[in-house]
Amino acid sequence: MTTARGDQQHDAGVDPLGRLREPTDPACDVFLTGTVFLDIIFTGLDSAPVRGTESWARGMGSSPGGVANMATALARLGLRTSLAAAFGDDHYGEYCWDALEQGEGIDLSLSRTVPGWHSPVTVSMAYEGERTMVSHGHEAPPDDNAAGALPAYPPHARAAVASLVPGRSEEWVARAARGGAKVFADVGWDDTGRWDLRGLTDLEHCEAFLPNAQEAMRYTRTDCPRAAARALADKVRYAVVTLGAEGAYAVDGATGETAEVPAIAVSALDPTGAGDVFVAGFVTGTLADWPLADRLAFAGLIAALSVQEFGGSLSAPGWGEVATWWEHVQEHVCQDPEALRARYAFLERMLPAATRPWPLRRAVPTIGFRAAPS
């Protein structure tokens, strides 16, 4: 069984929080919980599948998905990441556990394997820069063993990442905040159509809220994403609104500071997981105490690097890939070297030496390979 390419990422040896660490700090940098899917990604499709026909894909990969996208993105940036999730006791569950724990170095001590429960699965078909997904799964049964519950008492951590759901409150979010963790939250599309900000009850415990432009405007009843960010800054310390091809805009609700960073133009192959990578970048910059504009620039950069590859957790970049991009882009004839250095020079002090050529080619793992007989 192959695993994801986490060893390539962690070998870079970059710790973005290295200068801030103290002996009394929590062992965990970021805690998160959610559902892990087994993602099967078909690539190289010329068009969307047509009803009544058979489509052949030129490539295929498989990797942990769902909340694993975020966990992988955080771990590859050098943050000590703890994930609480349920895993099926099928081969898919075994593969996802090994890929995350052994391949990415993610702490799964709060996770559990559920006997008789099959892994949720998503089949993703990528074509023309978009994706179509079909998923199947059942909610994991509750764990009668309190020590393995998900998770009434989250670990002491610098930060936690939560996905808010309208009308639902998660007790662990409040506990994490009371324990000193900075809670970063995103949100999905409100299928009820209410878009009632009061329904996001856990927002009161959050340090940062990172919706996209449409979500932010609907929740704030505004017609401008920047106005929406300013309105949300009354609710959280950092309101960050992603603007798609225009970049991102953020407001510091405590100081009134604003920052806006344009997006990096890239050839997008698959946007799966890009939002998770963006959040991971902003979490990293916040915990490292970077200026607000630097956090946005870094989050946007690694999200842009991720969409140039297929898959969710597969595409999350690490420091080695950022270093390779930095070396390449400064010599690119279409780039303004002075503008680049002005925007990304803050990264130079921490980037490792670039050891891989551009364009990058990543290993795409799959399930079931066995060692060749000797």
Give the key terms.
single chain; 374 residues
Describe this structure in words.
This protein is α/β, with parallel strands linked by helices and 374 residues long. 27% of the residues lie in helices and 20% in strands. Strands 4-1-9-10-11-12-13-14 form an eight-stranded mixed beta sheet, sandwiched between helices. Helix 3 links the parallel strand 5 and strand 6. Helix 2 packs across helix 7, helix 5 crosses helix 6 and helix 7 packs antiparallel against helix 8. The longest helix has 15 residues. It is globular and about 50 Å long. The N terminus is likely disordered.
User: Radius of gyration in whole Å, from Cα?
Assistant: 20 Å
Strand content: 15-25%
Q: For the residues shown, what is the average pLDDT?
A: 87
Query: How far is the first residue's CA from the last residue's CA?
Result: 17 Å
Biggest β-sheet, characterized? Answer: 8 strands, mixed
Spatial shape: globular
Read across the widest sheet, the strand sequence of neighbours is 4-1-9-10-11-12-13-14
Q: What's the helix count?
A: 10
The number of distinct β-strands equals 14
Helix content: 25-40%
Spell the H/E element sequence: HEEEHEEHEEEEHEEHHEEEHHHH
Low-confidence stretches: 1-9
- SS-based class: alpha/beta
